[in-house]
TrEMBL record:
<comment type="similarity">
    <text>Belongs to the short-chain dehydrogenases/reductases (SDR) family.</text>
</comment>
<protein>
    <submittedName>
        <fullName>NAD(P)-dependent dehydrogenase, short-chain alcohol dehydrogenase family</fullName>
    </submittedName>
</protein>
<keyword id="KW-0560">Oxidoreductase</keyword>
<dbReference type="InterPro" id="IPR002347">
    <property type="entry name" value="SDR_fam"/>
</dbReference>
<dbReference type="GO" id="GO:0016616">
    <property type="term" value="F:oxidoreductase activity, acting on the CH-OH group of donors, NAD or NADP as acceptor"/>
</dbReference>
<dbReference type="Pfam" id="PF13561">
    <property type="entry name" value="adh_short_C2"/>
</dbReference>
<dbReference type="InterPro" id="IPR036291">
    <property type="entry name" value="NAD(P)-bd_dom_sf"/>
</dbReference>
Length: 252
């Protein structure tokens, strides 16, 4: 008899995707739906969330909430749990960036990045856990830049993504007794509107492609498989792991 294949499906599960209105969030929402999940597309931008939910059809719904606002997130997650009974998966993905050298970075920009990338991720994770049952899963979006010094001045993003790395590890231990797994995906540069200011610069793209052993930047579809793995029963014994998806850059 052939061995049973790992289960990468999310059939009839309830998945919340923050920052689901564009980029990696949108791609993962589509992948989760294709795997059988009912997907809640949570985004601060109503039009974006609604557009993705429309793409998902019967598998999707849009929820408008800002991850920085604890009360709004608590209401949104409670409403989801009331409709479906509980939450199975959280893709904790919402994030922003402000690129400046440290000596030129306005404090308001620093605080804005911390509020979304670190505090917002904290708010969403602990709120989701309150509505999870044993077997729940959280996948956080970290970054290759949370594990390295980076290749251009980006201190606020790097600091907050480094925090995501260690929040992931800490939560994995804290919530293991609840049988809730917490992991993170750490992409390198991914061609999305989020980094359009960089990818519009051909010389800079060529530089990063040369630095990448696989010779190219990632596309959003390169990230969905790793996220689905961490969100699915296929990774049942994996928790506290940071799955780097960077084409080999950090291996050098």
């Amino acid at each position: 008899m052939l061995p049973q294949l790992p289960n990468f499906l999310l059939e009839s599960e309830i998945a919340v995707v923050t920052g689901g209105g564009s980029g990696i969030g949108r791609a993962v929402a589509l992948a989760f739906a294709a795997a059988g999940a009912q997907v809640v597309v949570l985004d601060a931008h109503e039009a974006a969330a609604s557009q993705v939910a429309e793409e998902l059809g019967v598998y999707g719904e849009a929820v408008v909430a800002d991850v920085r606002e604890a009360e709004a997130i608590e209401r949104a997650f409670a409403d989801v749990a009331l409709r479906y009974g509980h939450i199975d998966v959280l893709f904790n993905n919402a994030g922003i960036n402000r690129r400046h050298p440290s000596l030129e970075l306005p404090l308001d920009d620093w605080n804005a990045v911390v509020a979304v990338n670190m505090t917002g991720m904290f708010i969403c994770a602990r709120t989701a856990v309150r509505h999870m049952v044993p077997g729940g899963r959280i996948v956080n979006t970290a970054s290759m830049l949370g594990l390295s010094g980076g290749w251009y001045p980006n201190i606020a993003y790097q600091a907050t993504k480094g925090a995501v790395v260690n929040m992931t590890r800490s939560w994995a231990i804290e919530w293991a007794p609840l049988q809730i797994r917490v992991n993170a995906v750490a992409p390198g540069l991914v061609r999305t509107p989020f980094i359009a200011a960089l990818t519009d610069q051909r010389d800079l793209v060529a530089k990063f492609e040369k630095l990448t052993p696989l010779g190219r930047l990632a596309e959003v579809d390169d990230i969905t498989g790793p996220v689905l793995f961490l969100a699915s029963p296929a990774s049942a014994m994996v928790t506290g792991h940071i799955l780097v998806v960077d084409g080999g850059m950090l291996a050098q």
